[in-house]
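call fold(seq) -> tokens
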Amino acid sequence: MIDVEILHRLQKTLVERKDAAPDSSYVASLYAKGADAICKKVAEEAAETIMAAKDGDRLHLVREVADLWFHSMILLAQFGVGVDDVLAELHRREGVSGIDEKKSRGV
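ret:
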């Protein structure tokens, strides 16, 4: 099993890029464009993930989900949220029925 530390290392890099010059990296350029641009990129990657799933190509699906996670982590960092916040929420939900969890949020 691959260690979750890869997510922490990636998060550290993404946070560091927030203060970098926009022309220094792709991630820095996304931050410079703002939350709307980052949200659009997440939506694009989500659509590509769906298309890969519909195609039934496992490798393509894995690669698109990696892109989706990567861009989602950029979005999280934009708002000062990190990997541990998401992991804590998943931990909170562990063993809870999806129906019950949704009811607890009033959804």
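The CA atoms of residues 63 and 79 lie 25 Å apart.
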